[in-house]
Amino acid sequence: MRYLVILKAAQPDGPPPAELMEAIAKLGMDATNAGVMLDMGGLAPAMNSVRIAVDAGGLSVVDGPFAEAKELISYVVYDVRSKEEAVEWAGRFMRLHRDLWQGWEGEAEVSRVFGPEDFAPQG
């Protein structure tokens, strides 16, 4: 099962500590070596984004930025056996931030990603 973890964190003052970045790199290697991390990255600032909406009037396309962004958003995609395993990997990432970056605050949302098997005809 694939799970998408979306991390939202307040824009902190200053760069992250080097110790944290090293620990994140090690955790990423551990997840890659375990064969569970499929992809990871961070979103570019909203000024590089586009919003596409459908409503009764049709389709509209609006270039960003949409509002002043005060949070950073990153993501990771895991291929794991269970939701609990995805939560464990995400929790490890969050604990690194808590332990190595004083004052850091954020949250991670862990959601299952539907795959082709979820849309296959039953029968």
Automatic annotation (TrEMBL):
Family affiliation: Belongs to the YciI family.
Residues spanning the membrane: none
Top-level taxon in the UniProt lineage: Bacteria
Domain YCII-related: 1-91
Pfam families, per the entry: YCII
Protein name: YCII-related domain-containing protein
Record PANTHER family: BLL0086 PROTEIN, BLL7171 PROTEIN-RELATED
InterPro entries with a match to the protein in the record: Dimeric_a/b-barrel, YCII
Species this protein is from: Micromonospora lupini str. Lupac 08
SUPFAM superfamilies associated with the record: Dimeric alpha+beta barrel
